[in-house]
Amino acid sequence: MSAHALELQSVRKSFGNTAIIRGVDLAIPRGERHAIIGPNGAGKSTLFNLISGRYPLSGGEILLNGESIAGLRPFEINRKGLSRSFQITNIFQRMSVFENIRCAVLWPLGYKYSFWHRLGGLKDANLRAEEVMESIGLKRRRDTYAGVLSYAEQRALEIGVTIAGGAEVVLLDEPTAGMSRTETADAVELIRKVSQGKTLIMVEHDMGVVFDLADRISVLVYGEIIACDAPQNIRGNKAVQEAYLGAEAD
Amino acid sequence: MPSARSKLRYRPLNLARWLIWGLTALVMAVLPQLFTQGFALTLMSQMGVAIIFALSYNMLLGQSGMLSFGHAVYSGLGAYVAVHALNLASKGQIWMPVSLLPLVGGLAGAFFGVLFGYVTTKRAGTTFAMITLGIGELVFSCSLMFPEFFGGEGGVTTNRVFGEPFLGITFGPSVQVYYLIALWCLLSMALMYAWSHTPLGRIANAVRDNPERAEFVGYDTQRVRWFTLIISAFFAGIAGALGMINFEIVTAENVSAARSGGVLLAAFIGGVGFFFGPIIGACVFIFFVVALSGYTQAWLLYLGLFFMLMVMFAPGGIASLVMMQVQLVARKRFGRIAPHYLGAGASGLLVLAALILTVEMTYKISVDSADGALMNLFGVEFDAAAAIPWAVAGGLWIAGGWLFNIARKRVARVWGEIQAEFVEGRT
Amino acid sequence: MEFFVISLLNGVSYGLLLFMLSSGLTLIFSMMGVLNFAHAAFYMVGAYAAYALGLKIGFFPALILAPLLVGLLGALVERYGLRTVHRWGHVAELLFTFGLAYLIEELVKVVWGLASVPYRVPEVLDGPLFILYSTAFPKLRGFMMLVALLMLLAVYLMLKRTRIGLVIQAALTHPQAAEALGHNVPRVFMLVFGGGTALAGLAGVIGGVAFVTDPSMAASLGPIIFVVAVVGGMGSLAGAFLASLLIGIVQTFAIAVDWSLGGMLGVIGIVVNEQTPMYSLWKLQLSQVAPVLPYLLLVLMLIFRPKGLLGTRAD
After folding, report:
1. B304, B323, B342: which is the final residue of a domain?
2. Which end of chain A is more exposed for a tag (fewer CB within 10 A), N or C?
3. Chain B residues whose beta carbon lies within 8 Å of the beta carbon of residue C302
4. Cα(C1)–Cα(C4) distance, integer angstroms
5. Residue C47: which CATH number?
6. CA–CA distance, C139 with B79 (Å, rounded to integer)
7. What is the pLDDT of residues B393-421, one digit of tens each?
8. Is B101 exposed, middle or buried (0-12, 13-18, 19+ CB in 10 A)?
9. In this structure, are residues B219 and B206 in contact, taking their beta carbons and an 8 Å threshold?
């Protein structure tokens, strides 16, 4: 059993002739809260898409708990214990909040393609969905259609659907994007709570959130990791300052 | 507070549910006693079959987002297998009571669902629609190539009356066939409704709404669609077998593109977004095809026009229109818009009259002119070649069109006012 | 040998007719994302219009006028019908054209009846173009090929040499970008839909006189052009051209060939007789199996290569 929850080895990705990810090495130990930051266009979302199986790798290897997941389809990777949220909210718009979360717990609880169980009678699924709904603070919006929730509520639901299945490795793609200051603070507390005991990897632009939550930070610039260290060391890193500010900081 | 609410929440819903199902069963049981003519009976029987077929189709379209142009393949092949089983049973070679034939049809449909479904559900969206079109045409083209199974040009005929009567039931009289269909219809409706409240049913909805997210909660969307199609094909096969029992013949028409198109029309007109939508759509469709066709040769034109108007102005179907009014009634605002509906309805009738007059007269002059141009419409006799009826039609178009336009704008205005009130939070 | 040459020429002429039809379908799909189910119905209207006009003004004037009328009809349908449906999405547009196909077919029946109409070949096109050994190749077929090639040339020139052609070309592969560049997209839509249906109408003028003009002509040719469009690759005119010729030639040859499937296996040494399982399949002759071939090709293509031969979007 590998000590690392997620490991990227020389990961490469090109679209046609354009290389987006040019050799990324990353090893994330179990239980760590890891943030990936970098300027726009660095390839952060592409990296997430590679890990979660949305795009095929052009080169290199990705290991989840020591097992290779390169080339697997998203649902196969999900079943192995990795779950992700999306930058643009990706939930089931025409279902209620409760139904959304319940959909996320059906497979992990083993109901698979059953057409002989009555949904209303699935005690474990319904209980788990209620629990998750409570923890993301949307209990009073239980029967509201996801499409009419406020933006912050939808982002909270997005996180809820992501963690409801109990995945050990959670990828959050810009979870606080577009939020106000108070909404961001609430979101940070929510993320801290739900990632307790799990391995969390997040892409974020908000430095406050990053320094608040992360155990370690990786800086991705032009498809390469130029630094990977604890938050206080990243702050003083010359190369990082150059990449973000474009010139030497005084 | 919340826990008390959740305890009470399900009770009134359950009562309403039992009431609705019970009422449906009662209506179906009582109908033949009210409408006893042979024509009414065959109409109701065909509606029963069409309801099962349309509901099975909506498992694909409305529930799972799969637009299929070849659904008749499953009902038709189910019918063919069932008719062969019936013929074998008549000869005494197998034991198969008529009442269990729909199960044979269903299993056959499911078998072909496994076979063809594996191929078709590999892709989604427009590509899926095109594959179903291709497979539909493929099976139809095969129908002349294998006369042992398809019966060649004349199809396969049968006799549903054989052997000893069971408790006095021979299935000879059409009222007995009606009750058989009604029973299977009720059973199928209940099962298909129940399906939508199972994990597979709900995940099928999820795959419809957001296939990517469904994959990221652990589901193989291809598998979900394939299994859904198999179950849908099962019920389609039941419908096919019941149709076979009713007509005692199965021909290549049963697997034709026209059949597939028909069930699409029926489900869509009824409304694919609600469970009961296709039930309404099936009844309307059968009315057009069976009843209206007795009165005019242009029935398919009226149906096609009706369908297109629905696509353009009410894509949610009749069911959505009904639910919109139910919402108004519940919030006590129906009375405000009702007179405007009446105005639109009356002027709409004028436009409809103009349409019917024009179409029937054109038909009489150009096609049906064998015995002169005299015709009879709603009891009024006139000469289609004379100028006056055409002038009347023109007048109806102009007057009806102008009045309908005014009424339509008025309805839209009042509707907008009411919706604005809802948004502002006034109950 | 003569059989081969004549069948090849017949296959090519039929394929070119299919291309005339499917090119309009491909253009409409590429530009607007609408799969026009009613395309074959416009083909039928072209045939009937040419017949009706031809009675008054003769075949050749009708050849020019009928496609224009069909194009006008198409533009009106787009402006007052399809445009309303646009906001409901692609599925709704598909269903609209699906209903339109029924409607047009029924209107044709109401006006002209159920039987075929005597749409006759004009004298100048009647008779053989040349005689190869003992088989005649009709002037009409040659004329069909000529019109199709001229149309192909005209469409090619328009796409490559005119400004509107540039816009359409861009929209063939990147519709949103073309829209974002500020072109009057609704007007272009109307033009493209009208143009596509006019091409279908032109095909109808020729097809109607070469084959039978009756209300079932749309239903018999309709599915084939979908096969052509999909096999060639949705959005590729070159692909549609290739696929049309392929299907035209394969179908023409298959219909004329009397070999049984079992017999063909016998050529490579496999013996098939009454004892073989599924004998009813093997004793079928290729000519009987011919109607199935295009759909078999469609299904196989969609499974293994949904992009089609030269397509750019799998959609």
Report:
1. B323
2. C
3. 123, 127, 130-131, 134
4. 5
5. 1.10.3470
6. 48
7. 888 889 888 999 898 898 889 888 888 88
8. buried
9. yes
